[in-house]
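EI: anyone free to look at a 106-residue chain?
SC: sure, send it
EI:
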Amino acid sequence: MVGGIGEPLRLMIDLPNEHDIVAMFPYRPGMELLVAANDGRGLCRRREEAVAQTRAGKQVLTPAEGAVARICIPAEGGDAVAFVGDNRKMLIVKLDDISLMTRGRA
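SC: here you go
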């Protein structure tokens, strides 16, 4: 619930039941987001390009068929990111090696 009146967030932003919220952040100009799906595809995106002007929101990541978004974090405070797969293996990637995209599929 958000606000003080008890209205569920799902109703407040018209989020269908088949979709889930991955993350929420306050707006900060210049911030970059790292978004990724569970199929191993991902990208960095400028926060300004992810802000929506409507209650329906904006799609930030287009996952492949059968994949779902799992990560949406600020891409700041370091120069690399570590991912741990279902197989418990870790992959460390430099943030500079992740594409900064305005649109498209990861």
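EI: The radius of gyration is 15 Å.
SC: 👍
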